[in-house]
Structure formats: C-alpha cells, structure tokens
Amino acid sequence: MNTFVKFSAFALMTALLSQPADASTVRRAVSANKSTSLGFFHVMTNMGAGCQQPARPKMLVERAPQHGTVVFLCSHHDGNQIKNGCKGVPVGGWDVVYTPARGYHGPDSFRIGAQYTQYLVGGGDSYSSDGFELVVK
After folding, report:
1. How many angstroms separate the CA atoms of 127 and 133, rounded?
2. Quick count: other Cβ atoms within 10 Å of Cβ 76?
3. Rounded percentage of the chain residues whose pLDDT exceeds 70
4. How far apart are CA 78 and CA 93, in angstroms?
5. Residue 87: CB atoms within 10 Å
6. Which residues make Cβ contacts (< 8 Å) with residue 45, sequence separation at least 6?
7. DSSP 45
8. Residue 94 — very low, low, confident or very high, per pLDDT cuts 50/70/90?
9. d(CA 102, CA 74)
C-alpha cells in the first residue's frame, strides 16, 4: 500500500473516531404551524439519597433544523414524571422546543448536545448528543 493511501486511511479513521457518540435519535411527527416540546432534558444524580441535581447542562444546537427553529426553555417538572424519578422533588432542566417554518410540511432534522459541567464525581466534563428526525404534518 503506498504512502498516500495509508495516510488517507489513517485520516479517515481519525475523523470517524473523533466524532461525538450518538446517544439516540428521536423520530416523530409534529404539527405544522405549532411549537412542539420534544422532550425534557435534565441531569439527576444520587437518586437513592435525596435526588441531587448538579448544575444545569449547557445546551448547544450542533446542527440547526433547515425548516424551523429549536430553542431550550428552562423549566421544572414533577419528579414523579421522570423515569426513575424522585417522588415529590421538582426537577429542573430544559424543554427542547421545535417550531417549523410557517406553512412548511415535510421532513426536518437537527442535532443537539449537552455539556455537563461539574457532573462527574471528582470534576471533569461529560458530553452527550441527540438527533431529531421529524415529519411536519
């Protein structure tokens, strides 16, 4: 194998390995001309000992939707509604809200990320990324 091919293969592998992990992809239909909450993003730790909540994650739009907008709205939800929730504890986080362009019907997609500062015991950061594939009806 010549040097150029070896270098190209190495560069491709380096690029692929440096991409953030894809935590999940949400697929769903949303209504045209209407804002839709696509989920509640929160961080909880120590669920068995009082349900502690560290600092809110920093939310980022990694890839914006082409046919609408996405915003993060600060909110609180009842812990009873959170999977493995904390009964009676209000949980702070971010609602992910998508609004399609007025009159648009069809597919749209975007990707968000969250950086958890002071999330891990002993310091350090964590990052997760989620994709959204929508059909505006």
Report:
1. 20
2. 12
3. 60
4. 11
5. 9
6. 52, 53, 54, 119
7. B
8. confident
9. 24
Sheet containing 36-42: give its strands across. Answer: 36-42, 90-100, 68-78
Between CA 114 and CA 130 the distance in angstroms is 9
Interval 30-87: pLDDT, tens: 999 999 999 877 766 555 555 666 667 789 999 999 999 999 998 877 765 555 556 6
Tokens (6 digits) for 44: 């909880």
**Structure tokens that stand for 125 in this block:** 């950061």
Tell me, what amino acid is at 2?
N
Model-level pTM greater than 0.85? no
List Cβ neighbours of 3 (8 Å cut-off, separation of 6 or more). none
| Contact between residue 68 and residue 98 where contact means Cβ atoms under 8 Å apart | yes
Note whether 81 and 37 are within 8 A (CB).
Answer: no
- Between the alpha carbon of residue 112 and those of residues 25, 26, 86, 92, the distances in Å are 10, 11, 26, 18
Residue 65 contacts residue 112 (beta carbons within 8 Å): no
The 3-state DSSP class for residue 8 equals helix
Sign of CA dihedral 63, 64, 67, 68: positive
